[in-house]
Amino acid sequence: MIAWLLAVLLGTQLIGYTHDGQPVTFPTYTVEQLQPEYDRLIRRRNGEALLELRQRREVVTADRGSDTPVPVARPPSPPVTTPPQGVLWRPSVERWRGLVDRYFTGVGESERALGTIRCESMGDPDMVTPPYAASGLFQHLAGYWDERAAAAGWAGASIFDPEANIAVAAWLVHTDGWQHWNACNRWVCAQGVC
């Protein structure tokens, strides 16, 4: 597989052998030839993931036996609070400080959490990042959300609920550390808040 990918990237001829030792020449393609098909597959996969997330976010059944959809009410955004001296995140991130302070209670955790929100979603609770459908303020992976939300005491909460997203992130940090946000942690620590 790696050899085939290298052959594609380099545009070289790929030769293999059958089980009885006969040489076989595989067709080669340039990246430009494969790009439209790759883009189509990614759009299809992302579209399915986004559709599923939108359906989970926008519609909740009245009860488990009912097919009647009920719109989900969005909770009001918490008020913007003043950060500690020397640290100021953009307003789209600062508006979550009240909730972050409520769930991230360790020394320096609030600033690190706000920095992670800044890095992951720029403070947009409706952010969805393809191809893994990472969603919400902390960009939780949709495939793990239900299990983690339930374990954190937020069973049934939407991944787009800012408070649930923050609370589940805090639970993950307190049970498993910051490793779920390694890429952003390097950036956050470079800002001097680790």
Descriptive key words:
194 residues; mainly alpha; Lysozyme; 2 domains; 7 strands; disordered N terminus
What do you see in this structure?
The structure is a single chain. This protein has 8 helices and 7 strands. It is mainly α and 194 residues long. It has a 3-stranded antiparallel beta sheet with strand order 5-6-7. The protein has a two-stranded antiparallel sheet with strand order 1-2. Strands 3-4 form a two-stranded antiparallel sheet. A hairpin with a 7-residue loop joins strand 3 and strand 4. The longest helix has 28 residues.
TL;DR?
The protein is mainly alpha-helical and 194 residues long. It folds into two domains: 70 residues, no CATH class; 100 residues, Lysozyme (Orthogonal Bundle), CATH 1.10.530.
CATH level-3 fold name of the largest domain: Lysozyme
Bin the helical content.
Answer: 40-55%
Principal-axis shape: elongated
Number of separate helices: 8
Number of strands: 7
How far the N terminus sits from the C terminus, by CA atoms, comes to 40 Å
What is the count of distinct domains?
2
SS content category: mainly alpha
Rg is 22 Å
Low-confidence stretches: 1-10, 58-66, 68-75, 77-84
Largest sheet: 3 strands, antiparallel
Oligomerization state: single chain
- What is the mean pLDDT? 75
Order of helices and strands: HEEHEEHHHEEEHHH
**CATH classification, class level of the largest domain:** Mainly Alpha
**Strand line-up of the largest beta sheet:** 5-6-7
Annotated CATH architecture of the largest domain = Orthogonal Bundle
Fraction in beta strands: 5-15%
